[in-house]
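Holo model, iron/sulfur cluster. Inputs:
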Amino acid sequence: MGKINDILSPFTAWKHVTKEPLTVKKPLEREGADRYRGFHKNEIDKCIGCGTCEDICQNAAIDLVPVDGVETKDGDSGLRPKIDYGRCCWCALCVDICTTNSL
Ligand code: SF4
Ligand code: SF4
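Output:
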């Protein structure tokens, strides 16, 4: 009995052949959900590398790192946030708390 099932069961998939697919044909062109906040974007010239975003992140997803072309100066640590999306849970606390509104 098991052998007949093994032979016939792949053909049961054909019953779906005329159904509309649930997947999106062009995922990059689909509209985002109303509350989707997307990936982080940091305006690097506006950011002052204060590290508040790093401190607030409960998932340790932010590291302040040196960036080519950004120098340390008065009021600017010269570091910029690097986000680890393996840790990030999209809570957006870092965005809400950003002292310069650059994130
Ligand atoms: S809180 Fe804002 S200004 Fe401060 S390091 Fe993070 S992104 Fe830059
Ligand atoms: S969105 Fe939340 S979890 Fe992700 S980096 Fe910002 S504070 Fe951390």
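The domain at 31-97 is CATH 3.30.70.20 (Alpha-Beta Plaits). The first helix runs from residue 2 to 8.
Archived with the compound record.
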